[in-house]
UniProtKB/TrEMBL annotation:
Sequence intervals crossing the membrane: none
Keyword list, A-Z: Chromosome
Chief place of localization: nucleus
Segments forming domain Pre-SET: 446-543
Name of the protein in its database record: Probable inactive histone-lysine N-methyltransferase SUVR1 isoform X4
Domain SET: 546-680
Region (Disordered), start-end ranges: 273-313
PROSITE patterns according to UniProt: PRE_SET (PS50867), SAM_MT43_3 (PS51580), SET (PS50280)
Organism in which the protein naturally occurs: Ziziphus jujuba
Subcellular location: Chromosome
């Protein structure tokens, strides 16, 4: 046993991750040498560097093994060349090769350079498997599961072997009925290497962000430190063809002792209880009898995490907990990296909600809050959510379960990480301070439910002193119609003098702005408001309550989203959630991955670029749901007469450089109808962030009609 307590602590931290001392020791030695015994760098973020280095070492071993297999394979091939009657052995070797390379890491050349660790990613041998075979399907599924970063072996009872058949669920569900298709899962009961903490880090640039505020160090419970997305999680070289090589998500939380179902925490206790669910889920039981909330409570019989009616008086908010048991506020993003050791990032709500904090209003401690969200509460082995929830794309992250089906072929959805709240990628600066939210931006003196009050509160200032939601939580028709008409007849466009989207291209000649849709904002009550969380002016922040399903469309659009229940006009469906990037980051990312990806998932938050302050130092913000996103990433485009409209919603940031993009139904939508929105793309513009596609929306207003016979990629000149 080592005597140095720091070594012991490192061993202990790795042990929690399931890594044995014998594996830790050599890597730790290397790192100590590399960092000239600067322990702080190694200890940062709960030994993230160390964990990654170990995992990389493991990967390199896999790689070496694979190389050996390749060599053997090559030899076999030579043999086969001369002895064509023996192809079977070759096939067997191929098969082995697939078996030994379940990890698809993101590469980290720097780490490889400095730590002497080979970091080449085992290449997915997808092409070499027989097309559409059950094996291929199971391999795909395996990758999907790996990407889900399950830290535990999958028990055979949790795994259903896919026989190549697809699940089918086509009948509309009655409200409250649970959509529960049997998903084909093919797993081998092996331990997935994806328990790795984060694989996108750069040893040469450790933690250089300035610390904005000093916060109490979050207490480390028996879960691991939260890993901050420090470096670009997905880079160009991570993609071979269409299939990204997902290793593990940049951010990941390890098993939490409690499941969501065990969260009945009284309001007063928020922030005081240890071990409560710190996932980003904003879980709230509602007491309003007939509001949207009550409706959603009913619907929650869909999901296994629906609180019972008895809980209806309690609010369940999630918080990070400080050493003293008080609620921590997540610092600015830049500061977060330095502060987050051992803590879990949580949702916006978690950042700032505690009454305690409201009272303190200490500028030091009225913390700069960053929109940093880590959604995952990884299941513990006996957690029933483990893998049998594969038919819930949200993986328990939403209040409702959302199944996926493919009635047409044997394709699976591409792997992605489900997050219920957006997550800052890297440079997007979303720091803001509660103390800077003035009275005009919140209704501090309200209490209870604002919309049932006799006088509209000041949160209605942007909407003509009227609440936009009805008492049933539905968008009022007058407001909705106005929003629709602003996008359709003809669209109200605003032009920037110097468009940030053009500036990022860094061309010699700055192209004129192509115009941005002017939109009406909704302002919801929030944390600094005096009203309760059951206030009717809080709809979007409560999350999805509709009964939805991801399905494979028949019109060559890939996957789509449909509703399994009738939705009245003005219903909130979901928010567009993804990684928050700057326009520059998005540009770089889309340029890099333009050719390799079939679908693209970016959205530009340009609703208010005309107003002062909506750009941060000229930088615009965007969302990208390619790798991290919620169910909105499946919503397909429809020209003009889509049944959803996206409306910007101000929740926490008054100056609109960041806002939530919420989808509401534009008309009554029947069960089983596909949900669509107008991406607002110009099919003649080859230079926009979303990759051009041949529109199959079927609308009689389709803007891509003329091109319908041209191939999908003809629009892009390159
Ligand atoms: C945000 S994703 C929507 C989900 C996507 N269909 C999937 O399978 O993941 C956008 C991509 O879907 C496809 N898509 C969306 N709407 C479409 C349409 N009307 N016609 C054809 N393809 C469409 C395009 O490939 C586009 O890049």
């Amino acid at each position: 046993m080592p005597t140095d307590p720091r070594v012991t602590a490192a061993f202990r931290a790795m042990k929690v991750l399931g890594i044995k001392e014998v594996k830790v020791k050599p890597v730790l030695k290397k790192l100590l040498k590399l960092y000239e015994r600067n322990w702080e760098l190694i200890e940062a973020e709960n030994y993230r560097v160390l964990a990654d280095a170990i995992f990389d070492e493991e990967d390199s071993k896999v790689e070496e093994q694979k190389k050996r297999c390749n060599n053997a394979d090559q030899e076999e091939e030579n043999l086969v060349h001369h002895q064509p009657e023996r192809p079977l052995k070759r096939l067997r070797l191929r098969h082995q090769e697939v078996q030994v390379s379940p990890t698809h890491n993101t590469s980290n050349t720097m780490l490889g350079d400095v730590a002497g660790i080979v970091l080449k990613r085992p290449k997915l041998e997808e092409d070499e498997l027989p097309e559409t075979s059950a094996q291929q399907q199971s391999q795909k599924m395996t990758e999907m599961l790996e990407f889900r970063a399950e830290p535990y072996p999958i028990s055979p009872q949790h795994a259903t072997r896919n026989k190549g058949k697809q699940l089918v669920l086509s009948k509309p569900l009655a409200p409250g009925e649970r959509s529960d298709p049997v998903s084909p899962v093919a797993v081998q009961g092996k331990r997935y290497v994806s328990e790795r903490v984060s694989n996108a880090l750069c040893l040469k640039e450790p933690m250089t962000h300035p610390v904005a505020v000093v916060l109490p160090k979050p207490k480390v419970f028996d879960c691991h430190g939260l890993i901050i997305p420090k470096d670009e999680p997905f880079t160009d070289d991570m993609f071979d063809g269409d299939m990204p090589h997902y290793g593990v998500p940049i951010a990941m939380i390890h098993p939490d002792p409690l499941s969501k179902g065990e969260l009945p925490v009284e309001k007063d206790e928020i922030g005081k209880k240890v071990g409560e669910d710190t996932s980003s889920q904003y879980i709230e039981t509602e007491s309003r009898a007939n509001g949207p909330v009550a409706l959603s409570s009913e619907r929650r019989t869909n999901g296994e995490f629906a609180p019972s009616l008895q809980e209806s008086s309690s609010e369940l908010a999630v918080s990070t907990l400080g050493e003293d048991g008080s609620t921590n506020v997540i610092p600015t993003l830049s500061g977060l990296d330095d502060h987050v050791q051992g803590s879990k990032r949580t949702s916006f709500d978690d950042c700032v909600v505690s009454d305690q904090e409201k009272k303190s209003e200490d500028p030091e401690c009225t913390k700069m809050c960053g929109l940093v969200v880590v959604p995952q509460c990884e299941p513990v082995p006996d957690d029933s959510r483990s893998f049998n929830d594969i038919n819930d794309v949200t993986r328990g992250e939403e209040r409702v379960r959302i199944s996926w089906v493919n009635e047409l072929n044997s394709e699976f959805p591409d792997p992605f990480r489900y997050i219920p709240h957006s997550l800052v990628f890297k440079n997007a600066n979303l720091s803001f301070s509660l103390s800077k939210i003035g009275d005009e931006n919140c209704c501090a003196t309200c209490n209870g439910d604002c919309i049932s009050g006799s006088v509209p509160c000041c949160c209605t200032r942007m909407t003509g002193s009227e609440f936009v939601y009805s008492s049933a939580g539905i968008l009022k028709e007058s407001f909705l119609d106005e929003c629709i008409s602003m996008t359709r007849h003809p669209p109200c466009l605003i032009y920037c003098k110097e468009c940030p989207l053009e500036r990022v291209k860094n061309d010699d000649c700055l192209e004129p702005c192509k115009g941005h849709l002017k939109r009406k904002f909704i302002k919801e009550c929030w944390s600094k408001c005096g009203c309760s969380k059951q206030c009717g002016n809080r709809v979007v922040q409560r999350g999805i309550t509709c009964n939805l399903q991801v399905y494979f469309t028949s019109e060559e659009k890939g996957w789509g989203l449909r509703t399994l229940e009738d939705l009245p006009k003005g219903t909130f469906v979901c928010e567009y959630v993804g990684e928050i990037l700057t326009s520059m980051e998005l540009y770089e990312r889309t340029v890099k991955t333009a050719k390799s990806r079939k679908c693209s998932y970016p959205v530009i938050l340009d609703a208010d670029w005309s107003s002062k302050g909506s750009l941060m130092n000229g930088e615009a913000l965007c969302l990208d749901a390619s790798h991290y996103g919620n169910v909105a990433r499946f919503i397909n485009h429809r020209c003009l007469d889509a049944n959803l409209i996206e409306i910007p919603v101000e929740v926490e940031i008054p100056d609109h450089h960041y806002y939530h993009l919420a989808f509401f139904t534009t008309r009554k939508v029947k069960a089983m109808e596909e949900l669509t929105w107008d991406y607002g793309i110009d099919f003649n513009d080859i230079d926009q962030p979303i990759k051009p596609f041949q529109c199959q929306c079927g609308s009689r207003f389709c803007r891509n009609m003329k091109r319908s016979n041209r191939s999908r990629y003809m629009l892009r000149s390159s």
